[in-house]
Amino acid sequence: MLRSRARLAIAGITLMTAFAACGDAGDDDEGKDVDADTDAASQIEDGTRMAEIRDAESITIGVKFDQPGLGFKSATSDVPTGFDVEIAKILASKLGLDTDEITWEETVSDNREPFLEERKVDLVLATYSITDERRQVVGQAGPYMLTGQQLLVKSDSDVESIADLNGQEVCSVTGSTSIDRINEQGAKGVGFASYSECVQKVLDGTVEGMSTDGSILAGYAAENEGELKVVGDEFSEERIGVGYNKEQTEWCEWINGALTEAFEDGSWAEAFESTLGKSGVETPEPPALDPCT
Amino acid sequence: MEAVLDDFDTYLKAFGYTLLLFLVAGVASMIIGTFLAACRVSPVPVLRGAAATWVTLVRNTPLVIVFGTLSFMAPMLWTRLNFRWVDVHIGPFDFTAFFSAAVLALSLYTSAFVCEAMRSGINAVPLGQAEAARAIGLPFSGVMTQVVLPQALRASVPPLASVQIALIKNTSVAAVFGVAEATSRMTSFNNDFASQRTSIFLCFAVGYIVLVEIFSFFSSRLERRWRVAR
Questions:
Q1: Fewer CB within 10 Å, N or C, chain B?
Q2: Where are the transmembrane segments (chain B) (predicted)?
Q3: Domain total for chain B?
Q4: pLDDT one-digit tens code per residue, B184-225
């Protein structure tokens, strides 16, 4: 009896130490809060979805939780961080909402359209590439960012571009646009659940390289300095936009207006510098917005 | 619907991978599982203990964890386990590191269930059969391969069929471990053709149902043919 109780105690202590160790992992960069912009909010026309959100003082925004620099939430933090998240905060502030009034919902690539259609989320800012196909089911405003696909390889690798990996396996995320582009370029895309798993596969030598948006790769290259490097020119162009429910057509003009303001007053550039810019990527020119139809 | 029909080759190839994963892992799991079952009823305590430990360990671990262990932890422990030395190409199919790791994970996982299904079959063989086999002087291996296992296999066809059907569906886990099988392709289709999500889902669901139904058909035929008259 005594022995089994002692054993239980030891097991308990071991578990607790393990949890404590987990709690320390990683330095949490919570990102900055953006206060409500009441001037902008008061100009919203009544009867629109935006006015409803302003009056209800709550909005649900879908972001990615697993893409460092764009939309990322570590296991120990309560709020996501990244460029998409910062842009979402700016949009919310122009609706008269403080950052803590935003409900963050994780939208993985597969559930972005269903969540918008079912109105589980009001907006989606989850590395959401604008495509004609998607515009048939949801509304997409923007783009607020242009990005292209590059290649991440080991530092001592001779690979210089995707052409060098013709017929070989290149890692990316299952079902993503990136994996389609890899296949189009003649390499063979192999899919994992997240980019960090691909990084692991590049590091242990199972694949020569991995590929997705250059901005994401730069983050991993910085994290594993001396072991990984980004190579090659961008071989695709993705236009990242804001998704909304197709029936709420009033969003488009409003989002474009809010983004134009953010481009002009420097808050867009600031959002870039505090997230993607950290890995040494230069802040680009703001992209040209698509007109609303 | 058009999305899948226009690219039907991709659809078929995806289910080809699913089928290949199932066939290779199915055969391997039957072999490993039968061996484990023989160990569990053997007169050697070490073998009994080892097999029981293996079954307890693997059967109580989620499949994703087994996959993760083989894909991420194993190469760290021993570099050869990254399976880069596997490089076979047959027709449109590539059998490389990812396929190997997936097959190994599925085989090891399923073998624990096969072992238990077999053991239930062994328990169904009357004790007198084994005693009679021993009485005519057969060693343990002879008792097992000549007398007990053939009867046990017949008795355990229904539970084994369930285990293998579960394996057909479990192959979908390989989608996020680098194999371009059906579930992985479905995600790709969904990503490219957002307006046809429902029909894409149905097309792939039908694919799995067809595979399982074909397998069920043959296993019930086998069950009837092999029924032991008692």
A1: C
A2: 14-39, 51-75, 95-115, 199-218
A3: 1
A4: 889 888 888 878 888 999 999 999 999 999 999 999 999 888
Query: How near does any CA of chain B get to the CA of A4, in Å?
Result: 21
Of A133, A174, A177, the CB nearest to B175: A174
**Residue A270 forms part of a structural domain:** yes
Domain-located, residue A292: no
In a domain, A290, yes or no: no
> CA of A135, closest CA in chain B: separation in Å?
9
Instruction: Flag whether the pTM goes above 0.95.
Output: no
Q: Is residue A291 part of a domain?
A: no
Query: Where is the domain boundary, A202, A231, A260?
Result: A231
**Sign of the torsion formed by the C-alpha atoms of B207, B208, B211 and B217:** negative
Instruction: Report the Cα–Cα distance between both ends of chain B, in Å, rounded.
Output: 52
Same domain, A42 and A133: yes
Co-location of A251 and A223 in the same domain: no
B173: containing domain:
2-229
pLDDT tens-digit profile of A202-248?
998 888 999 988 878 887 887 788 889 889 888 888 888 999 998 88
How many beta-carbon pairs below 8 A join chains A and B?
79
Q: CB-CB: which of B82, B180, B195 is closest to A191?
A: B180
Q: What is the CATH number of the domain that holds B88?
A: 1.10.3720.10
- Residues 123-152 of chain A whose Cβ lies under 8 A from any Cβ of chain B: 131, 133-134, 136-138
Number of domains observed in the structure of chain A? 2
Q: Which residues of A touch B67 (CB under 8 A)?
A: none
Residue-number span of the structural domain to which A214 is assigned: 149-231
**Chain B contacts of A176, Cβ < 8 Å?**
191
Chain B residues with beta carbon closer than 8 angstroms to that of A193: 176
